[in-house]
Amino acid sequence: MTFDWLSYIPTPDLQVLLAALLVALVLAFATKWLFLLLLRVTHSLTFTRELLLQAKAPLRLLLPLLGIHTVWNSSPDEIFFIDAARHLTSLAIIGSVTWLGLRAVDAVQQIILVHHPVNVSDNLRARRIQTQTRVLVRTLSALVMIFGFAAMLMTFPSARQFGASLLASAGLAGLAVGFAAKPVLGNLIAGLQIALTQPIRLDDVVIVENEWGRIEEITGTYVVVRIWDDRRLIVPLQWFIENPFQNWTRMTSSLIGAVTLWVDYSTPLEPLRQELARLCNEVPELWDGRVSVLQVIDSNERGIQLRVLASSGDSSRNWDLRCYIRENLINFINRDYPHCLPQLRGVLKPDVTKEHRDELPAQGDISEPERQPPV
User: How far apart are CA 156 and CA 87, in angstroms?
Assistant: First the structure.
């Protein structure tokens, strides 16, 4: 029995196909080497380097797929499973391009966040830019995924026919889908409004549902508010468009806080003002030097109400400053003017003693006037 080696020699078409695949793999490795060289050259260019690092993994998959897709298209149609291979390669290329688009968007976001940090004293502009970036990047990423998924569906002939049939009834279907997706679309539009008009930003101090907290995260559908005691309040985006709320850092983080005290009418005000000035000067890390006022704002039958106004660079410092002023002013009044604390006044009438009662005539001793006989 003789072994026929000629039966295992590839046909000329298959030889060309294998050679083209080998060339595509060589080009892929050469492109990878060139890519690493670009990373070394652009080490000092932050944007270019971050973009290349994010695109490294998708390009490593996309470039060989493009070479293989070129080989499949140039191959004869008689090759077994060539149509299926072309289709699968097209789907893989669309997926790789979608992945590349998502990584490019993320690279832009990372560059913007690095160049605008919020861990600085005056971070108003940085918080504004970061808020816009995060909301727009999430919206753009969702659009990239939708387009990628739609492009994959369009490679199937049945899906194209299904799309044409949907377009024929687009009016009614659009109304039904729009009504069903009203919450989702409302939050999407609210997210774009927040990104453009910015009623809230990341790290803003807000009062929502009578809760004090900071904006910790803004997603595509909701906002995470970190409450002062580390609870998280989840609020839909649309709520911030439709409801009023307090934003303590809308234009600036500086804030004026108030401290109220009830004291007696005899309290001297000038020593209290001097003590307030001394207390504020002792804590320059809490008091920003703008406002320091002590005024009488109310009075009643028992005493007067004092209000102290003091300013700080942000709400957290202002809270600590108010507590510091309140504690020390109370200690100052209690130490130097204890009689000036709120008092309850009353008038005590002298009691009728026993000797005074003895001087009064008894009820039986009071004689009635003599009656005159009738005439």
Answer: 9
Whether residue 20 is found in the same domain as residue 141: yes
Question: What range defines the domain where residue 74 resides?
Answer: 9-163
232-236 and 246-247 as β-strands: parallel, antiparallel, unpaired?
Answer: unpaired
Tell me if 187 sits within 8 A of 237, measured CB to CB: yes
Number of domains, the chain: 2
The answer to whether residue 129 sits within a structural domain is yes
Question: Smallest Cα–Cα separation from 306: which of 344, 336, 276, 338?
Answer: 276
CB 111 within 8 A of CB 46: yes
Single-letter amino acid code for the residue at 57: A
pLDDT tens per residue across span 262-278 = 999 999 999 999 999 99
Angle, CA 250 vertex, CA 245 and CA 252 arms, to 5°: 145
**Residue among 309, 306, 298 at smallest CA distance from 333:** 306
3-state secondary structure of 207: strand
What confidence tens digit (pLDDT) does each residue in 216-265 have? 888 878 899 999 898 999 998 888 888 999 988 887 778 899 999 999 99
Which CB contacts under 8 angstroms, 24+ apart, belong to 153-157? 155/87, 155/90, 155/91, 155/94
Show the DSSP H helices in 155-216 as ranges. Answer: 157-168, 170-180, 182-197
Burial 55-79, CB ≥16 within 10 A → b, else e: beebbeebbbbbbbbebbeebeeee
Residue type, position 370, single letter: E
